[in-house]
Design a protein that fits this description.
Strand 10 and strand 11 form a beta hairpin. Helix 2 runs parallel beside helix 3. By secondary structure, the chain is α/β, with parallel strands linked by helices.
C-alpha cells in the first residue's frame, strides 16, 4: 500500500525552518524553546491536497548536529531551507553534505522572499555549493516562499508530493512495525513516552517494541495532534 512521505526540514539556524513548519501546521512550535531555537526533533503529520505528509522538525543550531543528521537519515525526502537574505552559510553546507552522504532526495525552499531580495545570488551560491537547481544547470526542484505570508508554500508542498510519487513509497499493512525513535521522555504520570516515526508495517497497542537492547510493550498510542489512536501505519508519527 502507498504510504505518506517522511520529510525532514534542514538548513542553517534562523533561515526560517520552524516558521515554515509553523505555517504548515498552523500552530506555534517556537514558544517555550530556549532562546527561540528548536531543541527537540519531533514529527508532525499534515494533509495537503488529500495527501498526508509527515514532517520532522530538525534543529538548525550547530550544537544539535548529531540530531540533525539523525533526522535526515529517518527521512525519505528533505527540504533544504535557505534564506534569500543570507544565502548559503556553514550549516547550509553541512546540511548539503548530510543529504549527499545519506543520498536523500530533496527540494529547496528559498525563504524570506517577502524581503524582496533578488534570488540570483542565492541560486549562484547554491550552485557553488554543489546544488544545481532547475534552470541553473541542474534538476533540483525549488520554490521561493514566504513562510510568514504563506506565499509559495503550496507550491513547495506540491513539489514534495511529486517527489514522493516518484519514490513510490509503499508498506505492507500486515507486517510488524519498524521505524525510528525521534525523542524519548519520562514523567511521573505517563511514564516513558517515545516519539516515533513508523517506516514499515503497522504499530499497534500491545505490540512489543525494541530500541537497542530494551524491549517494552506499547500501552497507548497518540497521533501527532495528541488524539488517541489504536494503531499507526508506516509513514506516520505517533
Amino acid at each position: 500500500m502507498k504510504r505518506p512521505p517522511i520529510v525532514a526540514i534542514i538548513g542553517h539556524v534562523d533561515h526560517g525552518k520552524t516558521t515554515l513548519l509553523d505555517y504548515i501546521r498552523k500552530t506555534n512550535v517556537v514558544a517555550g524553546e530556549a532562546g527561540g531555537i528548536t531543541q527537540a526533533t519531533h514529527a508532525y503529520a499534515v494533509l495537503h491536497a488529500g495527501e498526508q505528509i509527515t514532517f520532522i522538525d530538525t534543529p538548525g543550531h550547530e550544537a544539535f548536529g548529531a540530531m540533525r543528521e539523525r533526522g535526515a537519515r529517518v527521512a525519505d525526502i528533505a527540504v533544504l531551507v535557505v534564506a534569500s537574505t543570507d544565502s548559503v552559510e556553514n550549516q547550509t553546507k553541512e546540511a548539503i553534505r548530510v543529504l549527499e552522504e545519506t543520498k536523500t532526495p530533496y527540494v529547496v525552499a528559498l525563504t524570506k522572499t517577502d524581503m524582496n531580495v533578488p534570488l540570483d545570488k542565492v541560486k549562484n551560491d547554491l550552485m557553488q555549493a554543489g546544488v544545481l537547481l532547475e534552470g541553473f544547470g541542474g534538476s533540483v526542484s525549488f520554490a521561493g516562499i514566504s513562510a510568514k505570508a504563506g506565499d509559495g508554500v503550496d507550491d513547495l508542498l506540491d513539489l514534495i508530493v511529486l517527489t514522493a510519487d516518484v519514490a513510490h513509497l509503499e508498506y505492507d499493512p500486515v507486517a510488524p512495525a519498524s521505524g525510528y525513535c525521534i525523542e524519548a521522555t519520562k514523567d511521573a504520570k505517563r511514564g516513558v513516552t517515545a516519539y516515533v516515526v513508523v517506516t514499515a508495517g503497522v504499530l499497534k497497542i500491545g505490540s512489543e517494541i525494541r530500541v537497542g537492547d530494551v524491549t517494552a510493550k506499547v500501552k497507548g498510542l497518540e497521533d501527532s495532534s495528541g488524539a488517541r489512536i489504536a494503531e499507526c501505519s508506516a509513514g506516520l508519527p505517533c
